[in-house]
Each structure stands twice: as C-alpha cells, then as structure tokens.
Amino acid sequence: MSVAVDAPPPPAPSAIQQLARVLPGIVLLGIVGYAGKITEQSIAAYGRAHHLTLPNIEYVLWAIIFGLVVLQVALAYISFAAPVVGVLHGINALAILIISGRTGQLGSETAPSAAGAAAV
User: Fold this and answer.
1) Measuring CA to CA, how many Å separate 92 from each of 38, 65, 95, 98, 107?
2) At what angle do helices 59-79 and 15-49 cross, to 10 degrees?
3) Domain ranges (residues) in the chain
4) Could you give the CA distance from residue 50 to residue 45 in angstroms, rounded to a whole number?
5) Rounded to 5 degrees, what angle do the CA atoms 119, 104, 39 make?
6) CA Rg, the chain, in Å?
7) What is the pLDDT of residues 20-65, one digit of tens each?
8) Tens digits of residue pLDDT in 67-76
9) Buried-state track 21-49, b at ≥16 Cβ within 10 A, e below 16
10) Phi and psi of 11, rounded to 5°?
C-alpha cells in the first residue's frame, strides 16, 4: 500500500521577483512607444525642413506597427522550436499588412493635395 504525501506549497514569489518578471515587458512597451513618437516627430521635421506636406500620422499607429514587427521577429524565432507557431507568424504578417495599409490610407486622407494647396 502506498501513502500519498502532500508536498508543501511553493513559497509565494516576493514583490521584487514579480517586478523582475514584468519589468522587461514594461521596458519594451516604453521603447516601442518612444520609437513611434520619434518616428512621428522625425517625419514632421523632415517635411518642415524640405517644405513638404506630409501626412501627420499619430505616434500610436507607428508604435502599433513597430510592436507588430517586434512580435513578427519573436514569432519567427520561436517557430523554429515549435512549428505550430508558424501559423501565428503568418497571421501577424497579415496584421502588419492591414495596419500599414490603413496607416497609409489615413495619411493620404489627412494630407492636403498639392493642387488644392496651390489653389488657396
């Protein structure tokens, strides 16, 4: 006859251990958001410096695109170990295509045309 012995529950992780788990993700979110903001400001500065009318696309959309690209690279790396993840890699590629297309569409809607600007 065997006797079942209950193992003691594992100790709860400390607040520092929990913070150490989530800190890399929080830092990555900040980096991606900041990259979107820098991209938005760089495009606006380039347009002002060269007297071009460029669309003002919000930094949030740039951050979404950058985040999807980071996810795409991570999924590509993971899919070598788990081929099932390759499906998510393809779905994410479609998401990048759709968001990029929508961003381009929003940019063309918000930018005044050169002919319209000359007529005013």
Assistant:
1) 24, 11, 5, 10, 22
2) 120
3) 23-110
4) 9
5) 100
6) 23
7) 898 998 898 899 889 888 988 998 899 899 988 777 778 888 888 8
8) 999 999 999 8
9) eeeeeeeeeeebbebbeebbeebeeeeee
10) -65, 145
